[in-house]
Amino acid sequence: MSSSSPLELKTPFPSRFIRAGAGAGKTTTLIKTFFEFVEYYKSQYNKLPKIIMTTFTRKATQEVKERLLLHAMNLGRQDLFQYINKKSLVHISTIHGVLSLMLSKNHDLLGLSSDIKVCDHKVLYKTYYRELKSIFKVHPEYIDLLDHYNFKDLVTLAIKFHESSSEHSIQYVGQNILKELRQKKIREALVDFDEILRIKPQMASHKSWGPYFEFIEKFAHAFRTGEFAKALEIFENKASKPSFPKAKHLFEISIHDKISAYFSSESDLWESLDSDEFIVTHEAVNSLFDRLAREFHQRVSLIKKQSGQISINDLETLALKLITEFPQQVQNFSSQYDYFMVDEYQDTSPLQVKILNALIGSQSQFTVGDPQQSIYLFRGARSEVFTEKENQSRQKNHELIQLDTNYRSDHKLMHLLNDTTQIFSEQFLPMLPKEISQSENDVQAYYVKTEDEYAGLVNHIARMNKKGIPFGEICILFNKNNDIFDFAKYALKNNIPVQSLIAAGFDRKREIIDLVSFLKFLVNPFDNWNLHILLRSPWFTITDSEIVSLRQGKIEQNKSLWLQLKHGQHVDGKKLVQYLECYQQQGVLAALEKFILDSGFLMNSHLLDPTGKREANVYKFISNLKQNIRSEQFILNDFLSAQFSSFQEDLSSNLNESVALFSGNRVSIMTIHGSKGLQFKHVILAGVGGKPKQTNILQFITNPDTHLYSIPVLNQEMKLTWSQWGKQQRRILNEKEYQEYERLFYVAITRAEKSISFVAETVKKPASNSWYTKLNWPVAGLHQSENYTLESLEYGLEIDPVDYIVSEEIPVKSKLNFTAPSSKPSMGTISVTELISNPESAIPTANSSVKTVANEKMIDHLSKAQKGTDLHRLFESTKYLPHEVVLAQATAEEKSALNWLMHLKQIPFQEILNQGYTEWGFGLRTQVGVVQGQIDLWGRINHQVYILDYKTGSSSYSEKALNQLRRYSECLKKMNLIKPQDQVQLVVLYPFEEKIIIEHCDESEISVI
User: Is the bond leading into 844 cis (omega within 30 degrees of zero)?
Assistant: First the structure.
């Protein structure tokens, strides 16, 4: 938009609905509309508007923002550039980012904690498991469910119920519904039998069909009179169905099809009729589960409300609750914005549609998407919502725009893609090709058959490369992540340079394992397993033989490896002492910086991986650590255990690998889902003969229209079996999955700019409903038509050799600034022990030096601590193991201490252990710096908060121990983990003296650190 072309203003600004096919300029239209609205609004109201823009993934939001900023720069509009960067005016995020914003402003209305945190399933699963286990302890009648499911499966079912019940009031499928379905099936069958028997007279004299119709009549009579046992006996003793000549039909084909459906060996008539015994069992199991699940739902909902830890599903259901119960507040929130822009509408779920409709209301809006590219059924997306929205927009007189010219694919290739998709499925509309160019490929499509898929891929890539196509212009699309890992290894062995662009694997990268093991060492140097991992990394010089020599002998094997290193003379032990001291005095970022600089971690990343991907993974890890440290509730232990499973706003996990900084001349390999929104010169689609992914094993089904649900039960053969209702729902789901399987093919082939290759393995017969069966596979050779050229190729098992590709020399980027993110100078890190020992001297300065020699007093303290550590582990193991098993592993002294602990009358020790948190490390930003500590055990029983400390020393120092617990209580209160009205019990335990000291206090008596 240039200043020389005046904008035609319209009042009010029109709402627009865009149906944009693949490569049709969807994002370009979105950018153009954004700037049109901004100029319109400014001219009308003399100020800049507030805009909400949502898209499906976080990556897409970043790309859209970059495009907006670039356009503002091209216009020479510094004011618009600054405007786009103001989050208060232009909110660009996923829908979950918008919901987070709305809930954060209205959390009190729903009784939610102010510090809402969206957690991964793995984080919440511990709560789910604990609560269900607690219910079983109180209600033994639920144990009958374990006859049908193991406990973990019951947890999964209860979670599904909880998620569904948060959205709707759901009911289980009762016996009356199953009986009615059975009667309906019987009525339908009897109507069909009458139609079949209508032609019995004309076939009476036929040698084969005459007797067969007699059998059908006897069967139908028994079936009609309800004599199902007799009908089954007749069915099992039936003769084979006579032949039905295709050339000369004896009767209507439709009648023959019905006979085959009911009386062939593949007939599912009996399976579709639930027996009385099955219905009784189904009712008993489902009703019992319903009672269990409802109690589970109430408990978990309350815990989430109090803790603020919610799932991504909760984010949506809580938003719906807010919309339903507090519509005025939602309207107040949405009225702050002047324009709503929704991208990738086809990927929204019905629940998200409800939320968006309530949020946007009658305000101006822009909606764009393509139902042909809806491929997120597993995340709740439904392609039909797009058509429904289109119809609503038409009724509201919105501007309807169809973008149907593909500017991505070459002219000839587009003709081929149209022909392919038209015979493939009725879902797809043809697109108009762009103008033909002189640089189009000589062949638009390759149909490749190969005895081994990986060998065929390598041979085909080598062939394309020898024809002058650079490796960097080729992309292979797989259906599964595992294929990407496996093929990457295979390709590299055969000199094919590849780069994997995968939405997983971050935690398995060697550089991340090394960084995590280093941080784990800082938290707990006595973890022998982790220390072994760290020492065997290339950043330390100690050899395996030197480690073995340290650990030889029974006495040495039972010692701490860390203490052996500290007492030893090896240089690595001295380096680790320095890192620990740096961590204790200056914090985790300073220690990590020192480790990375000392070891040459980043410099070596370039040598090991010139694409920059390894370096980018390191940057991502550090950036994530910095971001988490900003939180006052940052706990390094929790970060290390949960960072790979924490969700981003777009449902994408931190498991995603970083993208290579310099791709170079390498073949890209990725999943079809990962390729959405991207484009490549030459696309190779692997696995075209594979079986479509469809749900066969399903343990919880809901109907979104009736809000009924069901779970399967064991039949007489001890197999989990669905009722007829459940089978119907699964068939509906499988049909939707297959339609999405077709759309997945469409997304894959429309990534190509110049050529598409289909690769099918011939060792296995292609699946009957695979992509292969829908393609008109040509015979071997070159085939030319008026609009395009295709070639059919066949490869064997032998690999066509490829010359070794020398990696490019790529300059290394400058290193990161590791300074902690704060506007104020860092005050360093303080342990709770330092704080209570000498509060003034405990406060470190930003320039605290790192000692190079270990403090001998510290060694003595750590030696004493080892005994306590061993005892702690023994106590904590009672949480997971029977007491007799734990006692069998203990010394006589430890047995006595353990028995005393288990029989305490003053506190519910076992209950605290089961429901509480052991070895709970934390880091808390305060006025004096970051306070870090580790609580032996703490937990909440109703409104009683217990904070426990085990001591192996003398009780004469109990006042110091209590002082430490008081500090812990202040930290817990600061983190909102001690609530108003709570009673706090500070407990010091001396198991070897069999002595307990308890100090009681109210929440109001605890100061905030």
Answer: no
Whether 352 and 441 map to the same domain: the answer is: no
Look up tokens 């949480």; give the residue. 879
Q: Provide the phi-psi class of 238: left if phi over 0, else alpha when psi is between -120 and 50, else beta.
A: beta
Contact at 8 Å (CB) between 525 and 859? no
Kindly state the helix (H) or strand (E) to which residue 997 belongs, with its residue range. strand 995-1002
Is 758 a residue whose pLDDT tops 60?
Answer: yes
- Are the CB atoms for 457 and 686 separated by under 8 Å? yes
**Which residue, of 775, 795, 815, is where some domain finishes?**
795
- The residue with tokens 């999964």 is 156
Residue 269: partners with Cβ closer than 8 Å, 6 or more residues away: 189, 262
- 852: pLDDT strictly greater than 50: no
CATH number at residue 469: 3.40.50.300
Residue-wise pLDDT tens digits, 583-633: 888 888 899 989 998 888 887 777 777 667 788 888 888 887 887 787 666
Prior bond to 821 cis, omega within 30? no
State the Cα–Cα distance between residues 907 and 911, nearest whole angstrom: 9
For residue 680, being part of any structural domain is answered with yes
Instruction: Output the pLDDT for position 303.
Output: 93
Cα–Cα nearest to 771, from 761, 781, 786:
761
Domain match, 435 and 483 both: yes
Contact 286, 711 (CB under 8 A): yes
Is 293 within the bounds of a domain?
A: no
**Domain identity same for 465 and 541:** no
Total length of the chain: 1009
Q: What's the predicted TM-score (pTM) here?
A: 0.71
HSE (CB half, 13 Å, CA atoms) of 492? 12
**Mean predicted confidence (pLDDT) in 733-756:** 95
Q: How many CB atoms are closer than 10 A to CB 736?
A: 16
User: Last residue of some domain: 347, 375, 403?
Assistant: 403
Same domain membership, residue 689 and residue 572: no
pLDDT category, 469, cuts 50, 70, 90?
Answer: very high
**Tens of pLDDT, residues 44-70:** 999 999 999 999 887 788 889 999 999
Dihedral sign for Cα atoms in the order 7, 13, 18, 23: positive
Q: What is the CATH number of the domain that holds 633?
A: 1.10.486.10
User: 693: Cβ–Cβ under 8 A, 6 or more apart, which residues?
Assistant: 479, 737, 741
- Nearest by Cα to 825 from 971, 932, 930: 930
* 1007: its two tokens: 């100061």
Residues paired with residue 446 on neighbouring β-strands, in sequence order: 757, 791
Specify if 9 maps to a domain: no
Structural domain of 323: 16-114+312-403
Residues 858 and 997 in one domain: yes
In this predicted structure, the answer to whether residue 981 has a pLDDT above a threshold of 50 is yes
What six digits make up the tokens of 85? 């960067």
Longest Cα–Cα distance of the chain, Å, equals 110
Bridge partners (DSSP) of residue 755 are: 682
Sheet holding 90-94, edge to edge: 90-94, 51-55, 339-342, 365-369, 16-20, 399-403
Locate 966 and state its tokens: 């008081």
Average pLDDT, rounded, for the chain: 84
Which range is least confidently modeled, 334-348, 378-392, 615-629? 615-629
Rounded distance between C-alpha atoms, residue 820 and residue 822, angstroms: 6
Total domains in the fold of the chain: 4
Asked if residue 256 is part of any domain, the answer here is no
528 and 469 both lie in a single domain? no
Give CA–CA dist 328/311, Å, rounded.
Answer: 25
Average pLDDT over residues 7-11: 50
68 alpha carbon, distance to own chain's centre: 29
> Residue 292: in which H helix or E strand, if any?
helix 276-307
pLDDT in tens, 65-120: 999 999 999 999 999 999 999 999 999 999 999 999 999 899 899 988 877 888 87
Task: Please give the Cα distance from 761 to 726 (Å, whole number).
Answer: 35
